[in-house]
Amino acid sequence: MKIAEIKVFVSCPGRNFVTVKVLTDTGVYGLGDATVNGREMSVVAYLEEHVVPCLIGRNAHDIEDIWQYLYKGAYWRKGPITMAAIAAIDMALWDIKGKAANLPVYQLLGGKSRKGVTLYAHANGENIADTLDKAEGLIEQGFKVIRLQSAVPGLKVTYGVLGDKKDYFELQGNRPLPPEEEWSTQKYFNMIVDLFEQARERFGYTVDFVHDVHSRLTPIESAKLGQMLEKYNLLFLEDASMAENQDNYKLIRQKTSTPLAIGETYNTIWDCKDLIQNQLIDYIRTAATHAGGITALRRIADYASIYNVKTAPHGAPDLSPVCFAAHMHLNIWAPNFGIQEFVGFGNEQLQKLFKHDYRVENGMAYMSDAPGLGIEFDEDAATEYPYKRSYLPVSRLEDGTLWNW
Ligand code: CS2
Ligand code: MG
Questions:
Q1: With a 6 A CB cut-off, is 40 part of the ligand 1 pocket?
Q2: Hey, where are the domains in the chain?
Q3: 242: Cβ below 6 Å to ligand 1?
Q4: What is the value of pTM for the model shown?
Q5: Cα 313 from chain centroid?
Q6: What is the DSSP string of 205-217?
Q7: H or E segment at 249?
Q8: How confident is the model over 71-80, as pLDDT tens digits?
Q9: Class for domain 3-103, per CATH?
Q10: Of the candidates 330, 304, 346, 364, which has an alpha carbon nearest to the alpha carbon of residue 118?
């Protein structure tokens, strides 16, 4: 079965997505996600100019060799652009292999390790009461784990909070230049403990909470936050400090028993090797799209399982339904799967482009048993939503210092 053609689609059903379609000489084709939020066209160029010409004519079944060829064969390795390009090809080849075998991809990984995939949903509010009202709605829908993010009094905009936008698509989809947002750790510290104090008062300890710090604290601030939140028994604190310096987590880990999650910005196993082997984290959040695909995430999951680290794949609105499908197969298989971030199946435009039969019930997602990844892409409908440049925000401290968004 030879690779006959590779198509790269950029569409903007509310926000930009890059979808790859690998077609074989037998008519079987596979899909992959190559979306890097705010840098989509870099991946398109990397794929079309540097990857596609090398793959035409290769055996579509040689997933591992093609992965190694695209990773080691490129002298300039790693990084989000390179790894998203590799990821999309890899996901598509797993999709093809599953279709050729008439099996869902999870069967090729080793079958099911659980009935369904536990999800966590997002409760974002303009203030603590609003956030907890949103959380209550999600708990009523059956979610057992909720991410709590609340606006910080004194800051015009806070990560994750929709403001006057109706959803993430409206929030993220139309930023022709990077919006600048302000950050104050002091203002954040003045409200964050109250958020979880009031959450526990209102909901007790029958549900779990996670919180995304989004890399905004120094290690000692993260340690302090972890200590302040210990009594609220979070499932995890995410991106407590900058991910590039894995040593940050040696300090944080010594100071707090609040479980730690990191990984959505990591692109290879090397980025998280030290954190995993030194058990400095509890959840690894690498995403199939940004860390090299199913082949790569399988390796990371196996490595993490040796060190009591669970998987908690990134599932933000900028990861397409194709990435969600890839995660579903990994999540149902991985013996050390922890939890999957879930922001819904998107708006009606996105649902028009991507068809699947995954279903969500009571805070759990259930598999499609369709062969391959179990997802379809309507390339004609995609032409109705042309690419529209849009950036992620930039963050500055109140004195103007550039900071982590
Ligand atoms: C966030 C993401 O969901 C999360 O954990 O960190 O929403 C992140 O901000 C986006 O993926 C950036 O594109
Ligand atoms: Mg995050």
A1: no
A2: 3-103, 109-373
A3: no
A4: 0.97
A5: 5
A6: TSSEEEEE-TT-B
A7: helix 248-255
A8: 999 999 999 9
A9: alpha beta
A10: 364
